[in-house]
Amino acid sequence: MKRKSRAIACCSLGALLAGCATKHPENPALDLFPAGVDGSTDITYYDIHGRTARELVAQLRQLGPKTATGAFWAEAQSPMRWTYRTRTDGGERCSLTNVHILVHTEITMPRWVPPADTEPGVYDQWQESMAALTMHEVGHKNISAQAAREVLDRLKAISTDCNDIGTVAARATDAIMVKMRADQAKYDAETHHGQTQGVAFPPPKRPVP
User: 207 in a domain, yes or no?
Assistant: First the structure.
C-alpha cells in the first residue's frame, strides 16, 4: 500500500542544516536541508520603488504579503509531502519502507532597484535590512526542514498491527506538524518577526563608540 500526505507551514517574515546541493550562491543557507530530506527553495520578488527610506517603507507596507495574521515585508511557505509503502514484518505486524519526504520552500521578498537620485545612505541601509530579513526567512525554512526530518525518522521507526499502521502514521505526523506550527509562532514571537535579528528599515542608528 502506498500512502501520500501533505502538510503546509506558512510563516511570516522568514542553525544551518546539512543537506542538498546549493542553488543560491548568494546565500547557500537557502538550500541546506537535513540529510535524507529532499528540499529546495525558490524566491519570488515583488518590486517596490522610491528614492528615500520613507518612500520604501510605504511601498513595503502597501505591497508586502498579506496573511491571516497581518501584513509583512516577506513570507515563507514550506509545503511538505511524504510517501511510503507498507511492509509485512511477519504475521500481522507491519512497518513502513521507501519513506520519502519533500520540502519545497517558497519565499516572497521585496526587490528594489535604486534610482540615480536615491537619497544618500539608503542603499547601504537597504542591503543591511534585506540581509537580516533573508536570515529570518531562512530560520523559518529551517524549522520546517527539521520537522521534515522528524517525520522521516518517525515514519521509519513505526512497527505496529497492519490494520492500524495508517492511523498510527497519521497520528505521528499530525503531532509533528502541530509542534512545527507552534515552533514557527514561537520563533516569530521571540524575534518580534525578525526585529531582534536586524529586520528594520532604516536600521536603528548605532551609538558612536
Answer: no
